[in-house]
TrEMBL record:
Signal peptide: none
Record PANTHER family: CLUSTERED MITOCHONDRIA PROTEIN HOMOLOG, EUKARYOTIC TRANSLATION INITIATION FACTOR 3 SUBUNIT EIF-3
Database matches in InterPro entries: CLU_prot
Gene Ontology CC terms, in alphabetical order: cytoplasm
Protein name (Swiss-Prot/TrEMBL): CLU protein
Molecular function as annotated in GO: mRNA binding
Amino acid sequence: LVARVYESKAEFRSALQHEKEGYTIYKNQLGEHHEKTKESSEYLKYLTQQAVALQRTMNEIYKNGSNANIMPLKVT
């Protein structure tokens, strides 16, 4: 839940940190094959993709200024 709040604010580094903590807890307590562990793993992948997309967008803005071709981020 905390990770989703950070995601909504586009604070992907914090979101990833909190979700990694959650994933570790799920994995240690429930096992690698539990549904919650798998969901957390998928969410980590999604957050990573969003963080990369944001960084690429920022790089494009810095490189090309206001003429950058900016793709919107997906917000869940």
